[in-house]
Write a structure and sequence with these properties.
Elements (H helix, E strand, L loop, with lengths): L1 E4 L2 E4 L1 H15 L11 H24 L20 H8 L10 H8 L3 E12 L2 E11 L2 E8 L6 H17 L8 E6 L12 E4 L2 H17 L5
Parallel strand pairs: 5-6
Antiparallel strand pairs: 1-2, 3-4, 4-5, 6-7
Helix pairs in contact: 1-5, 1-6, 2-3, 5-6
């Protein structure tokens, strides 16, 4: 996926990291089991993720960032423009409700404030859309909402590199001190997990830059 700014094509952060992960898997096949999830299932998981993100975004607008939640308010799940995504979920066992954003917010709202959500950012040679910017325990932070069922060290590292790229590209706000992963974990009975927090660091961003340089080398004809 590419974005365009001033007629220049910029690869998305997720495409850059996805390519780096694919190369790693190809070079280390003994560490991975490539079976178990077919293309249809991947599309269903992606559809749920899209619907969950849209629901949280609408919640943010409807509740003024969680500061004014009407009595009996329910998180929205119906979006006329996401017909394909809704159809995919209807034909699967996956449910948006299994990713429990209201439960997460109720438990952690004293630690979090949101200033804005879903903002396009452009860095030096890349672009992307961050989920949210605000504060974590009073300090500037970038947030990323994930609906993955399982997390391991490598997966978490990829997510934190993603957030570091967004944080580095932000302008007009205080630079983030924290990178906060919000796991809306559908395999967990309560539908969410404890936030995973990492300090913004040069090491994380430099690791992302290494992936970017590899992507630029491999796809130089497309950029």
């Amino acid at each position: 996926r590419f974005y365009e700014k001033n007629k220049i094509k910029l690869p998305s952060v997720t495409s850059i990291l996805g390519w780096a992960e694919m190369l790693y898997r190809l070079r280390n096949p003994e560490k991975f089991d490539f079976g178990g999830v077919d293309e249809d299932e991947l599309q269903e998981y992606g559809a749920r993720g899209t619907l969950v993100h849209r629901s949280v975004q609408r919640w943010f607008l409807n509740t003024r960032g969680g500061t004014n939640t009407p009595t009996g308010y329910k998180i929205p799940t119906g979006f006329p423009d996401l017909v394909v995504e809704k159809k995919l979920l209807e034909e699967s066992k996956l449910k948006v409700e299994d990713c429990n954003w209201p439960g997460f917010w109720e438990k952690y709202k004293d630690k979090i404030t949101f200033k804005f959500m879903e903002r396009r950012v452009h860095g030096n040679g890349y672009a992307g859309t961050l989920d949210a910017y605000g504060t974590w325990e009073g300090e500037p932070a970038v947030f990323d909402i994930k609906t993955t069922s399982n997390y391991n060290a490598r997966v978490e590292l990829k997510y934190f590199k993603q957030m570091s790229a967004y944080a580095q590209a932000l302008t007009g706000v205080k630079k983030p001190k924290w990178l906060v992963l919000i796991p809306l974990n559908p395999s967990n009975k309560q539908g969410f997990g404890q936030p995973k927090v990492e300090a913004m660091s040069e090491n994380l961003f430099n690791s992302f830059l290494t992936d970017l340089r590899q992507f630029e080398k491999d796809f130089k004809d497309l950029i």
